[in-house]
Amino acid sequence: MTAASAVATAGQSSFALAYRSGAALFAVNGVIQDSADYVAADGATVVFAHGLNAGDVVSAHSLAPIYELQPAAFSARLASSSANATGAGLVAAVICDTEFADEGAVYDPVAGLFTAPTTGLYQFNLSVGLSGLTPAMTDIALTLTAGGLAFVARSAFADPAPAAATLRISQLAPMAAGDVASAAIVASGGAGDVASLIGGLPSETFFSGFLVR
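RE: above sequence
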């Protein structure tokens, strides 16, 4: 709360005081006045219904603005497995195409993109399951890109590689309004893109996020 004040002369009713229009309280000698006893609308002048005494102190107390967070939360999964998605270094976009929730219409299930509606700190949770890994594959890497930052979870394999694996990322990320978040995975080694993204229920591949503050 911020305040501005003035000292009255005998009979004075109009005072030039700066305040937040529609969000201010007015006091005379420290006593908050009833809104019926004055007119204040332009943010610069308050006019009392009666003249004040000489030496009365008039103060305007501007209330701090209240900010409401825009709703921003989503959760989506991969509805069915995506065959031959990655292998031999081929990067596959992770597109969770079936939404559980989307508060604020912030997630595009066709492109697999989250768009921040406002500047703030966001929490993301990402899980991707891969099947069809071949013994010659050397590692897999999952990347979450959010607001120009990249977060990577990686798993290196001893020979031979397992037939299936899951990588997860849980990360806070600062984002500006309009920034996007997306996910991608890559399996290195092996002969060709033979590994599949695991979809269906229970969810092995999912992407969710929300605005923290």
